[in-house]
Structures are given as C-alpha cells and as structure tokens.
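Re: that backbone. Tokens:
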C-alpha cells in the first residue's frame, strides 16, 4: 500500500495537469450553496441544485511544523494535496489558512469540491490580542476590526460558487470546563460590554423595581449596577455562585455574542453575495457555553460543533458515541438548525504536558488501528443522522504540537485511518429521510444554561440508554467490519454497515428531541440532568399535567437560585414535610478544648491561635440553634460565656455518638493564621472506614471563605471582620455513622457539627437494584432512601434493602428515579455503566 501511494504521489508531482483533467468533474460555473428542506429534511444543496452531503478534510497547507511547513508557499503542492483528498473520497476543503486563495478556489470550482474557510479575523496585525479568547463584543472598534478582516476576502469569495459557507471560528466568553462538571461562573465580559449591560437590562425589565425584586437589591437606577461591588469589582464581573443575578448576566453575555454575530453575518452578505451561508464553530454543549443562536437571532445558517472524544469515555463509552450524539442533537434541536461537525479527530498520543493531557481528541496511546475503528464508527453514524449535513475529519497532516492525529503521516505514508478512509468515505450510505416524529422529549429550558451544574455527563449517558437497542445493533455491524480495519478493501462496502444501516436506524431508533419549551402534546418528557436543579416554579406547574420521567434531583433551587423543596417527591404525592431530612446537632461540650470567644467585658477571656478572640456580641446566641446561608442548614452555637471552652482545636479527636444514618456532615469551622487543609475519617457501624477532605481548604478566619461559605460573619476583639465557614462533607447514606475522627491539624477549629439524614448527594453510595427479573449494582452519586410504604403509587425497581429505587404515581403519569442512573465519571464500579439495565427500565416506562 505504501509503495502504491508513493507512485501515486510521484505521478502527481510530474503531471498535476494530466491527473487533474482525469479527476475534474463538470464543474460549478454558477449558483451557490444553500440549505433547503427536501421531503421534510434540511440538506445542503450544491450550486448545480443537487443534494450535497459534505465529507470534509480540515487542512492548513501542510504540517504546522516539520519538513513540509514551507509548502504553503507553493500552490502546486497544495493543489496536489487536494487531488489526494478527492482520491480518498472527500468532497469538501475545510481550510484554516487562506493561502494561494485564487488557485485553490479555481480548482475547487472545476472539481466540484466545496470550500469551507475558517476565518480567524483576530489574527489581523492590528487586532487586540487580549481579545482573542474572550472578545469584548460590544466594543465598536472590535466590530470594525472584524469587518476589516472580511473586507480582504469576501470580494474574492463572491466570484466562486464553490464557497459552501464562511465559518467565523467564534471565541467564547467563559473559561472552558473540559470535564463537563459545571457551568463556569466567571463571565469574561470586556469593559465596553459591562458598560452596555444596564441598557440591556433596562430594555428587558423596563422598571428598576422589577430588577430589584429579582436581584434582591435596592438600586435607584439601572446604572447603579456598575457601582455594585458585589456584582462588579475592579472592572470585571465577579465569580457567579448562586446569586439571583447569575441568570441575567449569563443571558446578557450570550446576547452580546449573538448581537455581534448578527451584525457580522449581515455585513458578510453585504460585501459577498446575499445568499452566502455563514456559521461559526462551537464547542461542548453547555459547558463553554456558546450562544443558543437561531437563524432569526443571529443570521447563522447552520451550527458547527467540534467533537473530540474525551479520554474519560474510554472506560465505558470508548467510542465516544454518547458524547457525539448528545453534542450534535443538542445543538441542532435547541438552535433549530442543521448540524455540521466542523472538526472531529482522535489523538493516538496525548498532549505533551505534565501530566499528559487526555481530556479530548483521544483514542489510546500509539493505537492507530483503534483510531481507524473510531473513524469508521463516527463517520457511519454521522452519515445516517437526519439532522447532520456533513462532517470534517481533523486533519490531513499531524498538528505535532497538539499530538498525533493527522489523516496521513508527514512523510505522506498512509495511516490505517486514511487507508480505510479511501474505501469508505464516499461509499457510506447517507440517510436522506426526514427525522421520524418525536416519541420522547428531553427538557432543557434556556435558563438551565446558567445553572451552577451542567447536564453534560448525564445527557451523554441518557442518549446511550435511550438508543441502546440501535447502538447494540450498530456494534454488531461494526464487528463484522473488523477484519477490514487492518486490511482495508472494497469488500467492506458489501457488509451490512453499508447495505442495511439506514433501514436498521429507521427500525430501532427512538426518535427523541431536546426542547426548551414544554411541548403541548402528550408525549413523555424526560428531565435528566443536573441543570434542572434550577427548574422554575412556572415550569413545575406546567409539568403537573404532563407525563414526566425525572432522572435527577429536580427542584433543589428555582430559576432565581432560591432554595426549594424537592419537586420530584411532590410528583408522587409525597408531602415533603414528612420526608424533610432528619437533623441532629451533636453535643460537643466534652470535646471542647479551646476558648476562642471573649466578651467586651472580658476581652482577654479567649484567644484564637495567636490572635485576639471572636467578640461574643457579634456572634449568634450561645446554646441556641441558628440558620445559616438562607436556612439551608442549622447549627447549635456553643456557649459563649466567659471562662468556657467553645471549640475543638483539632488533634485527631474521636467524636462518638449513637449510630446515625447520615448523608451529609456539616461543620462550622475556622482556621487561625492561614488557610489550611484537613481530612476527617468516618467510621461506620459495620466497621468500614472512609477518609474525606474538609473541602479544598479551611479558610483563615480573617477572610471570606473561598470554599464552603460564610456561615457566620462577626468581629474580633480588635474590631476586624472575621468569619466561620460552613463546610459540608458527603457520606454514604446506606450506612450508619458511629464515629468522626477529626483532622490532626491544630490550625483547624470546629465550633459545631450537624448531621443531615435523608438524601445522599455524595460519592460512593453503593446500591443494589432489582427491577422485575433483572438486577444491577454499583456506585451511584446520590440516592433517596424512601420506604415502599411511603410511595402511594407503584414501585418499578427496589434497592436490596427493599426501599424504593424507581417509583411511579398512582395514575402512571409521573415516574421518579430515586438514585443517579446517569452520572458517569470513569470511576470503578459505577452503576451508570450498566446501560442495558437502565434501558430496560426506561423502555418499560415509555412504551408499556
């Protein structure tokens, strides 16, 4: 194979014109690319008016480094690579660098090769480099700079029908969370965008009284926001935790991007052709996040996510199907646009960082055959999904500083992925059928994008569970192709993957759709991700009359970050008051060994480390229960009388008590002289032990806590602000605790301990579940220990101790999972790995 390739390359070098004449099609002389709806399905239409499914190669004129890096200056060698791409079944060039533009466009016109440029307008010589990653979208100079970039290229593009679309390679306004764990609370708005924010809020709310009620503020005018140091400090938006203004600031940040896109897309069509399609590159759903743009709001024509299989998925979903499926469907459904994968690729070596970075674009170290198999799996799926218009493999040569994931090697020998690709790229069946009518809705309201937690991990699992029957059949088809991965030939096109995949998709696929509005029909609605902790009161009311399946602890707080009752229990007609977590305030007097509190009458009564003590007058009443942080937990405050010890200075003390079933241990703590760390040991009644850190740090008493939150703000004897921190440690609710062993760290002081029973939201909750004749066991990340007799309706699955695991209301319209069946973090023994088990339960709920 290598010998044949070198001969082919030599022929290309000797006579590009001759080979080009052989490959040249009729050519595109006029017309333009567009999207049309044919038989109910949105598809690309080429300049000749024919359906066009885009199979693209991402390219930047040779390797970024290495012996061919100078070839960008040679148009003939660049055209030679295009010929090779076409020979391998590609029909689209996704171009990074705009080199030799006229020559490339002319070749693409003549060869019916689509041209899809990635426009890096921020690389202009006079473009502010500080705005590259986090642009100031409301800055007029920024917008003018972006337009100047397109001024240079659009007049060239408008002469060539091969230009499929212009990709604006958009940047973001939030730091990336590659783990998918959370929505980052740091919004990187520039100075012009911050200055414009009061105008946007005024337009949205009209009256300042409306905003004050929502934000719990007392502003005189909208401009007062700019002077509110709780929201903006030193010219930047402060970290957003669970404040009620979080939603508006998120929405505003996304709006600034959308407004910029709308202006720029309009400008591009003005200097190019009015029909020119425009898009932008987006990343992981939710956790970047990117604007939920629509054609109407931004002027964009389709959405272009990039997909890199995460190293986290290798343990269970090593082919990355759940992430790929969730990513493209989420974007397509919520933005109501055709989806096009603008980059997908697989590193066979991780990024050269310390430690090596395996978070994305990963297959397995040095395993080129595995990368080829993943390529087959993903391209086959992308071809049959009705919401897809094409895909781009990244990239022709290796991008060496980012790891080894090129299509061919730098010496132009074939990798297994390219050897396979030349037989499959233009032979895999394309499904031109419209998407079947929706059978199941997955609810994701627009405000969920601002929730502290993301649905990313749960949704990857949910779509795999939902489509388990199809994906298993798909796996069987891939298995029959396995012999052709190492030794490719045209015989692979005779397998079921090529002859029956579309039919199997039509038969086995459960047609689901993400929706940001509660549907009017009576189809089942699944609520299945952490973001739905922010489920609004209005939505809960609407969902009362719907068939709902809740696979998450929906209703911990509403859409303005108010703490609420657990709404999923009310679905089952369970009075939350009867099930409110049991609270136990531990009596710690006999363990107190330090007096850190003094009174104004006796200022030298106590000492905190080497510092003057807390002032008792500024603290909660002694020997009384007080609520902290919006009444989310209560502590019994110690006796503050002079001459009494009132805290435990930690040195490994064992706090013993009657065995308690407990989900969270709450500490009221502080550290003297500096931030510090400490771990506790939990001893259960069965003899097992578990070590847990008290958060990332126990904050110095002089500072507002970085982790946890300030449960108490008081004064020290020298009149300085001082704090006590609420630290919550999750534990295994299925066991009873009898002893807590405190840290060996005398900097840490503990003033009170509260045990919370009921729901477990922590790690390592080992459960054993049975549904009908099937059973499963493993680690879940939360569970609700609800007795069967507390469920008025039907129990569909139970834990090994007989408590309800999946419960249904009497009328069968509301179903609640009382454990986390979806979160998968790549740990050992996770319950969500058992896709078959959860899939059977879900199908039973949906269709029987």
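Recovered sequence:
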């Amino acid at each position: 194979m290598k010998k044949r390739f070198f001969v082919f390359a030599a022929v290309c070098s000797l006579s590009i014109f001759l080979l080009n004449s052989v490959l040249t099609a009729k050519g595109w002389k006029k017309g333009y690319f567009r999207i049309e709806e044919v038989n109910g399905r949105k598809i690309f239409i080429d300049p000749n008016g024919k359906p066009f499914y885009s199979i693209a190669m991402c390219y930047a004129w040779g390797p970024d480094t290495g012996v061919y890096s100078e070839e960008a200056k040679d148009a003939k060698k660049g055209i030679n690579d295009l010929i090779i791409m076409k020979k391998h079944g590609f029909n689209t060039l996704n171009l990074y660098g705009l080199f030799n533009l006229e020559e490339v466009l002319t070749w693409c016109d003549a060869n019916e090769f689509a041209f899809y440029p990635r426009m890096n307008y921020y690389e202009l010589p006079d473009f502010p480099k500080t705005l590259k990653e986090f642009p100031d979208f409301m800055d007029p100079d920024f917008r003018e700079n972006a337009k100047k970039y397109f001024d240079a290229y659009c007049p060239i593009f408008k002469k060539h029908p091969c230009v499929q679309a212009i990709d604006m390679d958009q940047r973001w306004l939030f730091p990336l969370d590659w783990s998918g764990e959370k929505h980052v609370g740091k919004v990187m708005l520039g100075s012009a965008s911050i200055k414009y924010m009061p105008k946007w809020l005024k337009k949205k709310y009209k009256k300042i009284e409306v905003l004050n009620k929502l934000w719990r503020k007392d502003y005189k005018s909208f401009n007062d926001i700019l002077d509110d140091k709780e929201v903006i400090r030193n010219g930047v938006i402060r970290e957003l935790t669970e404040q009620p203004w979080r939603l508006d600031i998120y929405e505003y940040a996304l709006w600034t991007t959308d407004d910029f896109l709308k202006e720029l897309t309009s400008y591009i069509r003005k200097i190019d052709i009015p029909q020119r399609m425009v898009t932008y590159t987006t990343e992981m759903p939710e956790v970047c996040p990117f604007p939920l743009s629509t054609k109407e709001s931004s002027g964009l024509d389709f959405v272009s996510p990039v997909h890199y299989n995460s190293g986290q998925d290798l343990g269970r979903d090593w082919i990355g199907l759940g992430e790929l499926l969730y990513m493209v469907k989420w974007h397509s459904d919520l933005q109501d646009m055709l989806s096009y994968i603008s980059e997908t690729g697989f590193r066979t070596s991780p990024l050269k960082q310390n430690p090596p970075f395996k978070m994305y674009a990963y297959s397995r170290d040095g395993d080129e055959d595995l990368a080829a198999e993943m390529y087959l799996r993903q391209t086959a799926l992308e071809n049959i999904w009705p919401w897809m218009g094409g895909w781009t493999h990244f990239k022709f040569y290796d991008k060496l500083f980012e790891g080894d994931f090129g299509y061919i090697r730098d010496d132009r020998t074939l990798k297994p992925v390219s050897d396979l690709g030349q037989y499959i790229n233009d032979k895999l069946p394309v499904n031109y059928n419209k998407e079947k009518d929706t059978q199941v809705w997955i609810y994701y309201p627009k405000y969920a994008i601002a929730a502290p937690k993301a649905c990313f991990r749960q949704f990857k699992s949910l779509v795999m569970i939902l489509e388990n029957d199809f994906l298993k059949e798909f796996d069987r088809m891939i298995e029959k192709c396995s012999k052709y991965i190492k030794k490719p030939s045209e015989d692979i096109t005779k397998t079921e993957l090529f002859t029956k995949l579309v039919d199997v998709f039509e038969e086995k696929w459960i047609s689901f759709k993400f929706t940001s509005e509660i549907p009017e029909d009576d189809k089942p609605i699944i609520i299945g991700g952490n973001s739905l902790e922010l489920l609004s009161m209005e939505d809960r009311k609407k969902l009362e009359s719907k068939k709902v399946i809740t696979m998450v602890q929906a209703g911990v707080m509403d859409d303005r970050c108010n703490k609420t009752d657990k709404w999923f229990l009310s679905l089952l007609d369970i009075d939350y008051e009867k099930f409110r977590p049991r609270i136990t305030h531990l009596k710690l007097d006999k363990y107190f060994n330090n007096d850190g509190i003094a009174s104004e009458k006796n200022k030298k009564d106590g000492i905190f480390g080497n510092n003057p003590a807390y002032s008792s007058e500024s603290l909660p009443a002694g020997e009384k229960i007080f609520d902290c942080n919006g009444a989310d937990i209560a502590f019994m405050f110690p006796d503050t009388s002079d001459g009494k010890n009132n805290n435990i200075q930690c040195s490994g003390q064992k706090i013993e008590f009657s065995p308690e079933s407990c989900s969270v241990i709450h500490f009221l703590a502080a550290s003297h002289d500096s931030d510090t760390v400490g771990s506790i040991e939990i001893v259960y009644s069965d003899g097992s032990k578990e070590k847990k850190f008290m958060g990332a740090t126990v904050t110095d008493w002089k500072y507002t806590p970085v982790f946890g939150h300030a449960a108490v703000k008081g004064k020290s004897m020298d009149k300085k602000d001082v704090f006590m921190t609420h630290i919550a440690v999750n534990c295994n609710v299925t066991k009873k605790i009898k002893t807590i062993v405190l840290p060996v760290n005398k900097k840490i002081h503990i003033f009170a301990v509260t045990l919370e029973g009921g729901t477990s939201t922590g790690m390592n909750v080992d459960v054993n579940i049975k549904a009908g004749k099937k059973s499963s066991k493993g680690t879940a990340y939360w569970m609700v220990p609800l007795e069967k007799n507390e469920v008025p309706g039907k129990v569909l699955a139970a834990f090994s101790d007989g408590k309800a695991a999946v419960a249904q209301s009497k009328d069968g319209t509301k179903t609640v999972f009382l454990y986390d069946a979806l979160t998968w973090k790549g740990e050992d023994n996770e319950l969500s790995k058992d896709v078959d088990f959860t899939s059977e339960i879900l199908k039973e709920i949906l269709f029987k």
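Residues 1-24 have pLDDT under 50 and may be disordered. The first helix runs from residue 2 to 14.
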